């Protein structure tokens, strides 16, 4: 790398989604970090400006030009921003059937008190984007009412049940654009009260290396010891 290529502008964006009891989207929000990295090991840059005119719509960035100032050799400057989005790039649907031995159009939702209930949990994740999603890790908390946990079928990747943590871990797979993947787990449900029961939380993390939630297309100008306008 030469002194003519000393600056990198990097965007790292993330999204967070909360779903309800019926897998409906309750909230979705996105945020990002814009970084200016001076990768030179000897030259500082100053009078740095990041230009985002025409691409900052639906972000919390309020100016067309962001004044950065000075970035030392090997240093990094960062700023955070929020992004307005309507839907996430990955959706999760969970079906919790409390009597999977009886086939019906819709899943059963109630336990039979004092009986062993054949339970099937189905997790489906879908890539809603035009890019590939990887580094997926799905953690499903198993409620205390369930025993005899068994991975019935995993469409892709690897799934296991951590008995000490009572968590089903599904990972090591890729979802291609507009495709989905399914995991099914069976168990035995036993309840000794008529109180409502929690089906257990599900958390999902994933990465879209080439995907961007905002439309930001930043450019940069600065002064260095050798040149102006990077």
Question: How would you describe what is shown here?
Answer:
The protein has a four-stranded antiparallel beta sheet with strand order 6-7-12-9, with no helix packed on it. The protein has a four-stranded antiparallel beta sheet with strand order 10-11-8-13, with no helix packed on it. A three-stranded antiparallel beta sheet has the order 1-2-5, with no helix packed on it. The chain has two domains: 7-87 and 211-223, Immunoglobulin-like, CATH 2.60.40; 90-207, Sandwich (Immunoglobulin-like). It is an all-beta fold. 0% of the residues lie in helices and 50% in strands. It is built from no helices and 14 strands. It starts with 6 loop residues before the first strand and ends in a 7-residue tail after the last strand.
């Amino acid at each position: 790398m030469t002194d003519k290529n000393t600056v990198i502008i990097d965007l790292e964006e993330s999204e967070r989604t909360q779903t309800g009891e019926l897998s409906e989207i309750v909230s979705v929000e996105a945020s990002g970090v814009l970084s200016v990295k001076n990768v030179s090991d000897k030259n500082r840059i100053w009078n740095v400006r990041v230009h985002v005119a025409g691409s900052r719509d639906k972000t919390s960035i309020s100016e067309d030009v962001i004044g950065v100032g000075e970035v030392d050799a090997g240093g990094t400057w960062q700023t955070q921003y929020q992004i307005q989005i309507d839907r996430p790039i990955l959706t999760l649907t969970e079906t919790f059937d409390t009597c999977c031995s009886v086939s019906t159009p819709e899943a059963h939702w109630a336990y039979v008190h004092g009986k062993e209930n054949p339970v099937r949990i189905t997790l489906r994740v879908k890539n809603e984007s035009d890019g590939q999603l990887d580094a997926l890790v799905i953690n499903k908390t198993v409620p205390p009412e369930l025993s005899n946990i068994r991975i019935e079928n995993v469409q892709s990747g690897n799934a296991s049940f951590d008995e000490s943590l009572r968590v089903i871990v599904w990972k090591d797979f890729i979802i291609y654009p507009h495709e989905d993947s399914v995991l099914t787990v069976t168990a035995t449900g036993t309840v000794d009260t008529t109180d409502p029961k929690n089906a257990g939380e599900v958390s999902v993390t994933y990465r879209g290396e080439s995907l961007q939630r905002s439309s930001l297309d930043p450019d940069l100008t600065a002064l260095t010891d050798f040149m102006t306008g990077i």
